[in-house]
Design brief:
Helix content is 51%, strand content 10%. By secondary structure, it is mainly α. The chain folds into 3 domains: 193 residues, no CATH class; 51 residues, no CATH class; 54 residues, no CATH class. The strands form 5 sheets. Strands 6-8-7 form a 3-stranded antiparallel sheet. A two-stranded antiparallel ribbon has the order 1-2. Strand 3 and strand 4 form a beta hairpin. The radius of gyration is 23 Å and the shape is elongated.
Length: 344
């Protein structure tokens, strides 16, 4: 995997946000080019796109903070950082705060355990550029903002929605490619032809239960501890005792990031190259996207194994839970418009 695409003057360019930027840029360009044909002022559409970007980032970040299992970590980072265990820091020994800073392991030394913890940060929940976005949250947050902007600019909801119908899956397709390069949103173990492995390294604890720099000290499910670094799937398998010391790749897992990227690309292709020119009424393409995507996402979620917020005894994920009413609404709209005929 390649979480960092390249460096420019020593500054790392992350794969995830680079792919997101490419996807958003392409979607905005195609929507802008199409907007005039459907009777929307191209300048209004560009403004609309930027508002959607902002709303999408906020909504997806909020859902991540509240539903992905990190809520109390964000709270404690502000109220008491000594309660927050960062795997790369917690094994580093210290006597004073300066020891942690010098070793690049946070900024606070726990007075009782002599281990390092992160610095106080009351704005960590807002730092989306450090990772942590949930797509369904962004999609839902865009609805009220979109309705407000569309009414204010008198753009017409169905017309704008049909532009989003191919723009959203295109942006999502590139975003999931970024997930794959970063190694997040990984799948369950598989021995099928679609299995992929993520890199890392697993070794035993050093003197005084320490780990090399940039390694995490992990608690093994069967007892004991070890040192590891690598992508999330590798660390997960190491914690569950699925890997031996010296392992440098995870077990093969479902490439769920690529599954969803493929689904999104197919939706984009269908809507942009076919439905866009053959719609029976304005809004049809958008309703079809909102009906089909949650179904595909629901199925893909079954094959995922990362921490993403599970409900009802870990039977259903947050995305599955929110996708059900979204799909139901879209199906209802398609049904209620089933006899409608007009130029799209």
């Amino acid at each position: 995997m390649r979480p960092v695409l390249f460096e420019i003057f020593g500054v790392a360019v992350p794969a995830y946000y680079t792919m997101m930027a490419i996807g958003f840029g392409l979607a905005l360009y195609l929507g802008w080019r199409e907007s005039k044909r459907v009777g929307i002022d191209p300048d209004d559409f560009l403004d609309f796109g930027l508002y959607m970007l902002l709303a999408g980032l906020i909504g997806s970040r909020i859902l991540h903070v509240f539903a992905d299992g990190y809520f109390w970590d964000y709270v404690h980072l502000c109220t008491d950082p000594l309660l927050v265990d960062v795997p790369q820091f917690i094994h580093v020994q210290c006597s004073v705060d300066a020891d942690c800073v010098q070793k690049g392991a946070g900024a606070l030394c726990h007075p009782e355990t002599g281990r390092c913890h992160p610095a106080r940060d009351c704005f960590a929940a807002l730092a989306f550029w450090q990772g942590g976005l949930a797509f369904i949250g962004g999609l839902l947050a865009c609805f009220p903002v979109a309705i407000y902007i569309i009414r204010k600019r008198q753009m017409g909801f169905p017309r704008v929605a049909d532009l989003a119908a191919f723009g959203v899956p295109l942006g999502l397709a590139f975003g999931r490619l970024g997930c794959f390069l970063s190694g997040c949103c990984y799948g369950a173990v598989t021995h099928g032809p679609t299995g992929v492995r993520f890199g890392g390294y697993l070794t035993g604890l050093g003197p005084d239960a320490t780990c090399p720099k940039n390694y995490e000290r992990i608690d093994l499910i069967e007892g004991g501890q070890a040192c590891a670094f690598g992508r999330p799937a590798f660390l997960d398998h190491a914690e569950h005792g699925l890997l031996e010391f010296g392992a440098d790749t995870s077990l093969p897992v479902h490439a769920t990031q690529l599954y969803e990227s493929g689904l999104a690309f197919l939706l984009f292709a269908y809507i942009y190259f076919w439905r866009r020119r053959h719609s029976r009424y304005q809004g049809q393409a958008f309703y079809e996207f909102c009906a089909v995507y949650p179904i595909g996402r629901f199925i893909i979620e079954i094959f995922r194994a990362d921490d993403r917020g599970l409900w009802f005894g870990e039977l259903i994920s947050t995305s599955q839970l929110l996708g059900i009413p979204l799909c139901a609404w879209a199906v209802y709209m398609l049904w209620s418009h089933r006899d409608r005929r007009e130029e799209g």
